[in-house]
């Protein structure tokens, strides 16, 4: 039965076009993702009605009566062109195996990650994020394997990947997209160990998911509690990765007054911030910060009617307070 299901999954791919052509030629490179797909598809044949939307009422009725597996597959093959969506397959593939995701991952690693090579020759990758950002690390874990653990004494979690197949798969996906010079040095050591040619990145452009991942690592979106000014910023110890952002997204880079050893790229102009909002719609944040990004348009809507200046007893002021509480709580 499993072989029959696998054969029909392959047949199914020809009808879903680009969503399934993203499955790697070598299954071993993404065996965790492939395993998830196999299990999902096996489940789909048992209870197809809950996982596949079919226009043909005859097929829907037949599948809903729990017909034998071979009969379900026959009906599915016969009426495959009527499928509207297959979420158990297409969503995972579309979300994870595309170039913009790999760019996002490279940006995240440039900000919060480290490639490590021990004295004994063991290679690994670590990414440390705020505990609210577990979702972002779970996505990476689901694709490449690895583990996620709480850091002792800190409000943070750490993702660690050390098994060879998963690490080599990840390196293949981000090679040519890493921009942090320190990270390139780290990556080169592992590439040398495994006879992989290190690829240097092209010049950063607007149409690149790298900034989204870099923002998830080291960015902030805040409202000044004194003057209610909205800003988006990214901090780094050097200005190397920040200066190119000025040409693409506007803003300025300056030495952070809070720490003389760090730099910050910073935008406050409405048109520049809305340009970034538009960018994040194409290249989404995967951290908790996305919740604040989704509130930016509401912020300007309330600011335009001066809700932040309204008398405390008014409904307008209550609207602002309600919005601001959601902002503070990342809701």
TrEMBL record:
Pfam families for this protein: LAGLIDADG_1
Gene Ontology molecular function: endonuclease activity
Entry keyword annotation includes Metal-binding: no
Coiled-coil regions listed in the entry: none
Domain Homing endonuclease LAGLIDADG: 105-191, 212-299
Keyword Mitochondrion in record: yes
Keyword vocabulary terms for this entry: Mitochondrion
Function (record text): Mitochondrial DNA endonuclease involved in intron homing.
Name this polypeptide is given: Intronic protein at intron 5 of cox1 protein
Organism field: Tricholoma matsutake (Matsutake mushroom)
The organism's taxonomic lineage, starting at the top: Eukaryota, Fungi, Dikarya, Basidiomycota, Agaricomycotina
Gene giving rise to this polypeptide: hyp5
